[in-house]
Amino acid sequence: MKALTLTADWAPRPEYALTDIERQTRKIRNGCMVWKNPRISVGDCPDPTPKDDEVVIQVAAVGICGSDMHMYEAGEDGYMLYPGLTRFPNILGHEFAGRVMETGKAVRDLKVGDLVAVEEIQWCGECASCRRGFVNHCDNLEELGFTTPGAMAQYVSVRARYCWKLDELADRLGDEREALVMGAMVEPTGVSYHAMFNRLHTWQPGAYVVVFGAGPIGLAAEALAVAAGASQVIVFDTSASRREIASRLGATQVLDPTGLNLNEVLLDLTYGRGVDFVVEAAGAPEHTLTPLTQSLAVNGTITVIGLAGRPVPVSLVHYQQRGVQLAGSLGHAGHGTFMNVIRMMASGKLDLRPMVSARMPLDDAPSAFKRLESREDAKIILLPN
Ligand SMILES: [Zn+2]
Ligand SMILES: [Zn+2]
């Protein structure tokens, strides 16, 4: 089959303390400390065969994510930008939907022909974190398209337990191809849903919500806030094209943060009361955390989704005086998140079609990655079959 593979050189930075397990497995907690000179190419790979609990999926649509970009991009010193769990060489791609082609012997709930979206978080179900319900923080975590072969390929084999059927979405859209493209948006939208409703859900219909960063995760967060009844959804991004998409998705205010006094602007827009809920999806907390904290209403929350490798100084006095909180969020698995996102899409309450700026064949993936370097597009979808 055809697939897009990312290769990188093993070059641990001297200051990075590799664990024995990292050395043995080459599964690295913080990719930007080890992998150098990342490069991608489309070529031939062996077809996958399903283990007993797996299904083989013919990939219909796979999105290119900010994380894919950060694995593909390197800093001036040649090291990959992505600061998370990784193992290379590997087939990229983790935001996808497709059709079940083959089922392993032990698979009960899926059959050939089913349309599914798939969780990227490959939780084990057996460790203490999984058994306590925190599957996104599985102690034996593998991530599809990061540490195991991903979906920028014609076929991918995944455990049936990570699949969620798209029949309701296909039914209500009346178009299987469209349902599969939207199905590829369930994973990134699930990341936003998890941060907004499963972590510290301190806001209610009527609340003032700020989304900082209108990349795909921020745009999905915006659409979820609108659907869930926020009375104001204020979105910040430096890109004019992304601000335009944010306007189409129903934000009440869309602003370029460049040169703005964020705290002043936000207090002004919220009648001096402050913001109830902030989604940090820009990965730029060194610029945003202090002014956004100062703009919080009493009992407000900042949820951090954007990954930033460097530490950020935080003044805690405001957290105490205003009784506000900061929540980190990672992942999209468990808690019925995929199911609820699919239902919201099927109902028409969550229409993310304005986010899809291009659909391209897998062969054009290298030029799609190149095009995304400017961060003008919201989401490019690859069609591998
Ligand atoms: Zn992603
Ligand atoms: Zn686990």
Q: Could you give the topology of this structure?
A:
Elements: E1 2-10, H1 20-25, E2 35-44, E3 54-63, H2 66-72, E4 90-91, E5 95-103, E6 115-118, E7 121-122, H3 128-131, E8 142-143, E9 155-159, E10 163-165, H4 167-173, H5 176-183, H6 186-198, E11 208-212, H7 216-227, E12 232-236, H8 240-248, E13 253-255, H9 262-269, E14 275-280, H10 285-294, E15 296-304, H11 317-321, E16 325-328, H12 337-347, E17 356-361, H13 365-372, E18 379-383
Helix pairs in contact: 4-5, 4-12, 6-7, 6-12
Bound molecules: zinc ion (2 copies).
Description:
It is a single chain. This protein starts with a strand and ends with a strand. It has two domains: 239 residues, Quinone Oxidoreductase, Chain A, domain 1; 129 residues, NAD(P)-binding Rossmann-like Domain (Rossmann fold, 3-Layer(aba) Sandwich), CATH 3.40.50. Strands 3, 5, 6, 9, 10, 17 and 18 form a seven-stranded mixed sheet that branches. Strands 13-12-11-14-15-16 form a six-stranded parallel sheet, with helices on both faces. Helix 6 crosses helix 7 and helix 6 crosses helix 12. It is built from 13 helices and 18 strands. It has 385 residues and is α/β, with parallel strands linked by helices. The protein is globular.
